[in-house]
Amino acid sequence: MATAEVLCIGTELLLGDVLDTNSQFLAQQLALLGINCFHRVTVGDNPERIRECMRTALLRADILITSGGIGPTADDLTTESIAQVFGAPLDVDQEVLAFIEGLFAARGLKMPPSNAKQALRPRGARILPNPVGSAPGIIWTLGPAELAVLGLQDVQTVKSILTFPGVPSELKGMWAGTARGYLEETYAGGTIWSKELKHYGIGESALAEKFAHLLDLANPSVAPYAGNWECRLRVAAKAATLEEARALAQPVIDEIKQGSGVRCYGEDSDTLESVVGRLLTERGLTIALAESCTGGMVSERLTNIPGSSRYIMLNAVTYSNEAKHRVLGVSEEILNTQGAVSPECARAMALGIRQLTSCDLGLSVTGIAGPDGGTEEKPIGLVYLGLSARGADNEERYFARTLRLGKRLGRHEVRWRTAQEALNMVRLYLIDPQHLESP
Amino acid sequence: MATAEVLCIGTELLLGDVLDTNSQFLAQQLALLGINCFHRVTVGDNPERIRECMRTALLRADILITSGGIGPTADDLTTESIAQVFGAPLDVDQEVLAFIEGLFAARGLKMPPSNAKQALRPRGARILPNPVGSAPGIIWTLGPAELAVLGLQDVQTVKSILTFPGVPSELKGMWAGTARGYLEETYAGGTIWSKELKHYGIGESALAEKFAHLLDLANPSVAPYAGNWECRLRVAAKAATLEEARALAQPVIDEIKQGSGVRCYGEDSDTLESVVGRLLTERGLTIALAESCTGGMVSERLTNIPGSSRYIMLNAVTYSNEAKHRVLGVSEEILNTQGAVSPECARAMALGIRQLTSCDLGLSVTGIAGPDGGTEEKPIGLVYLGLSARGADNEERYFARTLRLGKRLGRHEVRWRTAQEALNMVRLYLIDPQHLESP
Q1: Is the same domain home to B246 and B278?
Q2: Which residue among A159, A186, A213 closes a domain?
Q3: ipTM exceeding 0.90?
Q4: Domain that holds residue A64
Q5: Which of A237, A353, B52, B299 could disulfide-pair with A249, CB 3.0 to 4.6 Å?
């Protein structure tokens, strides 16, 4: 089984200016590929120390993965350091150079000379394309000459170096685009086939207890993860072929789906919003949102699904009472007596947005996200959700939810948690309104 | 100046099950104490590798700080490993043992035998009390015997080991309670004061070239970072006191602000949306948004600022042409002839939302976020922004921006980049409309 070592390069990391999230992403991805990771090292922008860490890593691991230090500025030293470790010359990759110049030209700018260094690669290394940003990385499958430099004359294992930028979105894009495939081909001992079963409405420990007997399995392995107010069960099987691996995992996947029911909302790259989008498209239904405390987050997530313009007509972020009254027709009486954060207002908002847009579904969110604005009887974290719908029977239906999330959560957490619940309400309704009737 | 090395211990970290936030906290705290940190290492629950990492750290640093591995379970190996490195016996600390037994007794429980190991400490080490949880750590100022084991017969520097649990709240409590004081006493090397200057509208390399003469400074040091379509310059100064450090940095900060002008939009925790919010509040102005391709992202960001309900009335995500026509009053002629993605539509949307809400500012966004919907003449990444305003002179003003972001960016990147530009338009207008007049 191959071993990788992750080297994060950047003084900003050692000063704590930046929270390193790349390491967790890389760790999870390596685990998915069945590649071991025994050490992770973070080092600053110091040439000597960078080279020393690279040598150490290449001696104790098969794969060196670096993050950071491939930008255009003088303290970006990763590529140079790799070349120095092996005494390899740095060649200008004309294709990359032209590409970077093109990026500037597209904005009517001339490329600053310093950006040229981003087109450098040690002789023998290939380019690791960057689909998002300007700086590509490199993939270098070390040859006998490089191994000799490390004093590894007759190793049988393949040693590789992959470099990524520190910007998370770019690193992820490059991983999915090229790096994962390369590592799979070069190192995957057998094939690992895995599927993530995404859950909403059940906690990690409850999920772990429910499927405790599966968590002890070796192949397929089942592991629970939590984050962003949802849980995932990852089922991973290892076999000679992808088909055998899938066949190993399938019965376990079926058992989990069976046991979880609607709480298992999707697989792998599914999100609550993508599932809602798929269901709306299948049913040929349209939706409109009236958001207050979430400020547009539900809308942003739902419209982030390609093609969502087919089923979304209008989302109104009615932040002020005036907007709730003028745009959604919430009566002044409700606003003055019950207030904007009330079940009555949520209902009027949901009805109002649906009537304004004549959509099939009207979803409303009103609450107190904090950090201020909370009162004794309406504390921070109190949220009312409403879903107004015209059923298949053409009957008017209305469903309500109340969240009491407590003061502990920050503003963003309250909004995200609320958006999760709002999207899940729509999902449950589209699967079967009965799921919403029992609170 | 003393040097510390942070060693994070736990297989869950190397599997990516846990996001490591302790490292950033420790890094920031060490910087405040003026203690260097050149390496940070993460290792799994493997005795041999843990010992090897400890030896390496103690040879290249004065202070070894560990996080994790001091719980009651079999895979908690930190304390044992330290003892093994020096061949030191493990003593039971009766006080700690009684304390832990007390914790269980308080809950009417008998202490499980496994918890007794949390009362162990290598002979010669002191206890690092844990005000929050059950497991204390240790502080060990290494004596001649231990230094000899490391082959350091005649070093002048003091070498220390401090161990913390992995639980962030406990680690922070122990740091503030005891560890910081100990390190201050033993190693105090002045302190570091730093400020980040956030920029929009200038690339990292251009920024680095503009201030190239500053990037070579040693104290204060100036370093550029980029990400999320903006750039930061971090100015960090080291001195005996925080005041002296700030005084060292101030002239450089002033020079950068002077040189960057409006492209430097804020400091440290400022964001484009928080700056816009502050300016709107200062000017006593209100704003309303009409978003199409960003789907609510601008709204979500702007309303994520506490107190934003004071200046935001309504944000409309008008995704369909019908909504653009019915809610914003975009003429059918514009929609049919120029189309929804056109300068004319952006203008009509901005005017429409402002008239609907009678706000001071109306901001509109319409474009093609992809991945589909692009055409030859209207490619993916084409975005039109509009800002309609009633000036101080009560005169109607309108400002437009066109973005051509290209097909390379993903849907989310196009939206984020567009939101950055939209927020910056509002910022520039609020500072001085002239900044928008020259395209």
Answers
A1: no
A2: A186
A3: no
A4: 3-186
A5: A237
